[in-house]
Amino acid sequence: MSDVLAEAPEVEEAPPDYLHAGGGIKGWLLTRDHKRIAVMFYVLILVMLLLGGVFALLLRTELLSPNALVMSADTYNRMFTLHGVVMVFLFMIPGIPSVFGNFLLPLMVGAKDLAFPRLNLLSLYVYTAGAVIVLGATIWGGADTGWTFYPPYSTTTDSTVLPVTIGVFVLGISNIMTSLNIIVTTHTLRARGIGWSRLPLFVWALYATAIIVLLATPVLGMTLLLVGADRLYHFGIFDPARGGDPVLYQHLFWFYSHPAVYIMILPAMGVISETVSTFSHKKPSSYLAIAVSSVGIAGVGFFTWGHHMFVAGMSELDAGIFGSLSMFVALFSAIKVFTWVATIYRGRVRFDTPMLYFFWFLFLFVFGGMTGVAVATQSLDVHWHDTYFIVAHFHFIMVGGTLTAFLGAAHYWFPKMFGRLYSEKMGLATSAAVFLGFVLTFFPQFLLGNMGMPRRYYSYPARFQWLNVLSTGGAYLLAAALVLTLLNLLIALRWGARAGSNPWRARTYEWETPSPPPTHNFLAPPVVDRGPYDFDLSEEEARARTEAP
Amino acid sequence: MLNEVLRRILFLPVQGSTLAQRIDALHYAVILSTMAGAFLVTLAGGYLLLRYRRRLPEPAIPNVEAGSQLSPPLKVAALAALAALFLAFWAVGVRQYMELRVAPEGAMNVYVTAKKWMWKFAYPEGARSIGVLYVPAGRPVRLVMTSRDVIHSFFVPDFRVKQDVVPGRYTTVWFEAVAPGRYEILCSQYCGTGHSTMRGEVVALSAEDYARWLRGAPEPAQIAAPAYTPPALGRPDAAIPLQPSSLVRQGQRVAAEQGCLRCHTLDGTPHIGPTWGGLYHARVPLEGGGEATADEAYLTESMMDPLSKIHRGYPPVMPSYLGKLDGPETAALVELIRSLADVPPAREAP
Known about the structure:
The complex is a heterodimer of chains A (about 550) and B (about 350). Chain A is an all-alpha fold. Chain A has helices at about 25-30, 35-60, 75-110, 115-135, 155, 160-190, 200-235, 245-280, 285-300, 315-345, 355-375, 380-385, 390-410, 415-420, 425-450, 465-495, 540-545, and strands at about 420, 495-500. In chain A, about 60% of the residues are buried. Helices cover about 30% and strands about 20% of the residues of chain B. The two termini of chain B are about 50 Å apart. Chain B has a five-stranded mixed beta sheet with strand order 3-2-1-5-8, with no helix packed on it. A five-stranded mixed beta sheet of chain B has the order 4-10-9-6-7. Chain B is elongated and about 85 Å long. Chain B has seven helices and twelve strands. In chain B, strand 1 (about 110-115) and strand 2 form a beta hairpin. Chain B has about 350 residues and is of the alpha+beta class. The interface between A and B is large, with 98 and 94 residues.
């Protein structure tokens, strides 16, 4: 990365930016600078997105035909397991916090670095180890359990389940390290003048996410260890042949994995809150509503896991309680959506690529969220459960929500991270193509689910074929659009125009330092005398109020 | 009428059970209102984005409208209305869910055993069937289900019912078919290699036909045309070499009914189990060393006690058919395999 910008003219006196801080390869691999660690995470996470995407394309290709086409049933089963594990544990969960959170949190609270820089570097290496273990397992055949690892299938199948669960366990450790760093940094390293009500909303989202990670991940770790014990030592926790209970596993698994949905979507909501405010050039219509609903989602999200199990053999009373609590998540999400829309009202909207991504997010997230209300309605879920309706629903939230926000963040903070501007025209065009490809891929899957096509089906009755072909076509379009998006950013990395410190005229504190920022983030420790969205101040005044008098 | 139009627009299957139509009514209400809400929010957002777009050249003055927002009572009212709507969905959904879960008094029981990758049904009168569930139309039927291996899920889209089938416990599901007909059964909980072919069908008969079927009569002609044929596993079905022997044809029928073809192919392609193409009198390598000749004795033994001599390279998953195949059926299967002796072995499955 440092070579790419090697011939950039140095500014006199000012310390070099973090990309030019020197140290060679070692300066990167052993760095304690959160920005360099974030950039390394960025590269790894994009590789994972690419891998997960390739697996998805292979799956979609196989589904062009109701019968065998390019792979066997066993290969298909391993492929969707790999797709799920890679996308969930290697891309979605760490994606926004480890890349943009890592990079921006210290800048947004006016700190020199995260609270535990060495722990941050360790989390990168632990993540790498987890990725190697998960992907390495495919060399020994790979697991065919699905990313949900339901026993007794996972405890009896011949495929290599253990390395994958161990890999996921290791990834959880990395995730916990990052989250500890986020929480401690938010509590202890805020610059003078940045109180809790002056934190950018992205920080609130990261903070709420980190709390969920700390509380939920250990449960997943224990559960996966118990699956391992069942496999290796015939422990019998989940194996009915030894008196165990497979439904117990589902409770434990979803106790983590439902909150994990919010681990994936909350940081994305944080990105959206920043985007909509900056590009509307206006304060969020209610800072309090967005911050509180983040924490509200984090809280209620812990008590809705049972809605994954309406047909699993749970008592009717439990199912009713879980169903009603699930509706409250929708309510908190609605508060956020209304606040975003109201923020645009009487703003001065600048329609750049990140704002277009906001608009796609708005449509896809609301659409996906509303289908969430539909599947939380129990008698309807009985028909939809484990069909493509569910597949479409969670892809609307995870791809339509989280990936869209990830791409929005990649464009919004690109000038800050790399000091360059990407091609706005290409940005808008690729963004539109991503949206089209996405809708074409996943909308037909809602209809497939209504028709009754179960998920994880290698072959299917012929009446489902034309919708599957449509969906596969959309997947190819989506893949092409993502590749073009990446190219646009890579080209800008080398040839983009200089960005300047604040190209979007934003007010959050990370824009008050040069782009890319110097190693210690700010030229002098900031002393802040304003909020993060004070658009009623002129740019000069806003800057003056972040400097020591 | 409206029901039918909406059902087709939403791609829902036919409403084959007594509960289906009411569940679909809730479906329409929920989907139409939530989708309307989603489009409304998006349209509002899109309108505001255009209405308040920044016009060039930008004024340098700071945004004095920065704090403007809707009045608080209005927001609270909107949220309360939304909460009421969601809770109304929930309340109706819970009531229907209870109806789906609790079978009416006097429902007839059928016992269901699921295993990789077939459905087995046992009727109180002593009849048994595999893959096809025969029920009387117009009478509530309660299924008492368990699994022999992993979790499966009994799903009949036309009935809007689904229930996981869990090893080590019994789960139940009930339905009442409104009319005689054929309704597809799909396994909807992932269960391994044959998950997507673990299908079957419910055949709803009139009360008289059902009584006749219990007495051993074949299913009546008007619904005998098979809507469901066991799909080819692994690769599209190659032409089955037919011989003009009624026993071979009978063997094909038995193989389809008993689920043999879910694991064994006829065209020389290895699958979950060894192919039957070219198997007859072939030398079979055995797990644990040695080999056997696939003669009538070996084939019969493999049906009745499949774990005693395992074909090397295949998982020991075949269930025993002891007591499930009678003499003529066993003979018919052997005859079918013999008729396939000249099928050349295919290359490895892709």
